[in-house]
C-alpha cells in the first residue's frame, strides 16, 4: 500500500486544482518559504478526517478554504482527494485503488466519499484504522515536532516510535481485552457464589 496521489481544490493556498503524484519510496516537496509545503501535509491529515482546526494551523475549520488573494476571489468550498494504491489488499476493501475525498463548504459541514460514493467519517476511520495511516496514528510529523522528537529522552522517543509503528493501537486493544476479562471474571465469581448458595 502506498499513497499514489493527492489532489487539492480550493484547499488553503491551492485555489486551482493541483495534483501531486507520489511514487513508492521517498518523496520530497521543496519550495520557498510560504509556498504551501505544509499546506500539502495539512491536506493529507484533513482528508483522513482531521477535526481540529489547530492541528491544521487555523483558527476555525473553514480556514482551510481558499480565502482569496489580491488577484483572486475567495472560494466557497475546499476539496481534497487522496488516492491510495491498495493492490496488496492492505486496506480491507475490494478495490486495488481507493480514493478518499473530503469536501467542506463555507457554511460548515464536511462531506466524505470513498471511490466517489458518499460515506461517513466513521467509514473512512474504520477503513484506515488498521493501516497505520489514519488521523490518530500520528505518522505525520510536523515542523517543530521534529525538534521534540530529537530532544526527547529515551522513554519519550520510544513512545513516539511506538505510536508511529502502530503499537499504540495494539496496546489499546490489549487494555480493552483485559477490561473485558476482568468483567468476565467478576461475572464468573458471581455465578460461582450463586451455585455455592444453591448447593
Ligand atoms: P515554510 O517553508 O515557511 O514553512 P510552507 O511552504 O510550508 O512555508 P505553508 O505554511 O504551507 O508554506 O503555506 C503558507 C501560505 O499559505 C501562506 O502564504 C498563507 O497565506 C497561505 N494560506 C494558508 N491558508 C490559506 C487560505 N485559506 N487561503 C489562501 N491562502 C492560504
From TrEMBL:
<comment type="function">
    <text>Required for chromosome condensation and partitioning.</text>
</comment>
<comment type="subunit">
    <text>Homodimer.</text>
</comment>
<feature type="binding site">
    <location>
        <begin position="32"/>
        <end position="39"/>
    </location>
    <ligand>
        <name>ATP</name>
    </ligand>
</feature>
<protein>
    <recommendedName>
        <fullName>Chromosome partition protein Smc</fullName>
    </recommendedName>
</protein>
<comment type="similarity">
    <text>Belongs to the SMC family.</text>
</comment>
<feature type="coiled-coil region">
    <location>
        <begin position="167"/>
        <end position="199"/>
    </location>
</feature>
